[in-house]
Amino acid sequence: MIIKVKFILDYYKFIGKHELLLDVKNNSTLLDIIDYINNNIKNGFKEKIINGNEIKYPNMILINGRRAEFLNGLNTSLNENDEILFSPLAYFAL
């Protein structure tokens, strides 16, 4: 299935792209996507985003416009054509 992943500010600088289209296995979770990016795109990404089973502050992860913390966190199941946005929390406080 295809997932669109977008990066804002610090994450764009770290990854080097604003957007990726990832072809991942069905039934992937947010954690699977973070692992995929860490293992295939940019090593060290996972350490910037999560600490154990928690999203690190001040990271904000949106799945189709909804904060991951209000869904099922890192275990949120993804569907074809979902959109994930990685952004510093401060970006939304402006």
From TrEMBL:
Q: What keywords does the record list, in alphabetical order?
A: Cytoplasm, Isopeptide bond, tRNA processing, Ubl conjugation pathway
**GO biological process, alphabetically ordered:** tRNA thio-modification
Give the UniProt entry's GO cellular component terms. Answer: cytoplasm
The name this protein carries in UniProt is Ubiquitin-like protein
| Species assigned in the record | Caldisphaera lagunensis (strain DSM 15908 / JCM 11604 / ANMR 0165 / IC-154)
> Lineage from the top down?
Archaea, Thermoproteota, Thermoprotei, Acidilobales, Caldisphaeraceae
